[in-house]
Amino acid sequence: MLARTFGCVRVVFNDALHLRQEEYQANGQTISSTELQKRLITQAKHTAERWWLADVTSIALQQSVQDACLAFKNFFQSLKGQRTGRKVGFPRFKRKSNAQAFRLTRGGFKLRDNGKLYLAKIGDVKVQWSRELPSEPSSVTVIQDVAGRYFVSFVCEVEPVRQPAPTDGIGIDLGITTFATLSTGEKIANPRILQRQLKKLRRLQQSLSRKVKGSKHYQLARKKVARLHARVKDTRTDFLHKLSTRLVRENQALVLEDLNVSGMVKNRKLARAISDAGWRQFRALLESKSIRYGRDLQVISRWEPTSQRCSCCGQIGGKKPLKVRAWTCLYCGAEHDRDVNAAVNIKACIERSRNAAGGHPEALNARGGLQKTGKPAAADEARTRLEVEQLSLFAC
Ligand SMILES: [Zn+2]
């Protein structure tokens, strides 16, 4: 029944993309979400091609149509520059071989007293709860990842954590050899999770490439590759979660450098090592946790000469190639570790801005090279959205 629901949701989503595109090309008009729902769900149920849509819950199908409309909206807003963040591409069709998901809103699911989860038209499902829900959930998403594992994810409201930080502020310099260097001098090694599994991954991928596409053995080999990727991802996420939680709990202000990750991964020699590190995910985790804990997360411009400036006397000593790990300042004679010096400089940016703003860290103008992440409105939005918790449901 879960598989059928995944399938129907995928079909409705693809139908919605197709119909909207077709309608637009024919009449130059956009079909509304209600009209799409009427045609693709209510009316389609009575046709010979789509009668099976009646077997699954219509809540999941309606949500799927809404997702398709949102995908178009995001694309057009991004195109017009009305959307912050990365560019959003044209909506793509959903594939059977990718991860599958469907969402149910209130009325479509219920939490049973015996710990089971009732899903409309599917029934009671046994859940392996990873934690207690902080409040009454407003929706549930059931996910099947490529490795064939099932998850349920709830949207709940959470209270912000009121907990004073023991330390004032910290500068964080991200790298490849050492994952993070803190302005306190502490170095956190890069676990290089993918790197350690590369040999195994290569072997599995070779085995996959020798199979006949679409055969039973091909499917098995594909699953093995997916499982290894899932393990790598889980280990990395676990590492990033633990580190970000610790840093956010301990510090009132956190300063990061704004790294151009998309640009950096274009360097083919470093792409894998950079992606393996997970800088972008780390920053996203710091951002959401900072909001929840009421911390200031500052991101300084990538043009700030953090590795060139001497953190003792403030003189800029010029560019240093990446292989220079330690250097001595020509002006004051101080000896520096490259990363620690950079982290101290990153932290110093926030102090400079705090002094300028009379006690409160504030965004400087463009040339000051300091910017606050997100607008206040965006922060509020994040506060209500951050509560997405992922829980393992049951093993396949
Ligand atoms: Zn110096």
Structure notes:
The chain is of the alpha+beta class and 396 residues long. The chain is built from 10 helices and 15 strands. The chain has 3 domains: 94 residues; 81 residues, no CATH class; 196 residues, 2-Layer Sandwich (Nucleotidyltransferase, domain 5), CATH 3.30.420. The strands form 4 sheets. It has a 6-stranded mixed β-sheet with strand order 9-8-7-10-11-14. β5 and β6 form a beta hairpin. α1 packs across α3. It is elongated and about 80 Å long. The two termini are 14 Å apart. The C terminus is likely disordered. Bound molecules: zinc ion. The site of zinc ion (ZN) has 8 residues, from loops.
User: Largest sheet, described in full?
Assistant: 6 strands, mixed
Low-confidence stretches: 359-396
Order of helices and strands: HHHEEEEEEEEEHHEHHHEEEHEHE
Our count of helices gives 10
CATH architecture of the largest domain: 2-Layer Sandwich
Mean pLDDT: 86
CATH overall fold name of the largest domain: Nucleotidyltransferase, domain 5
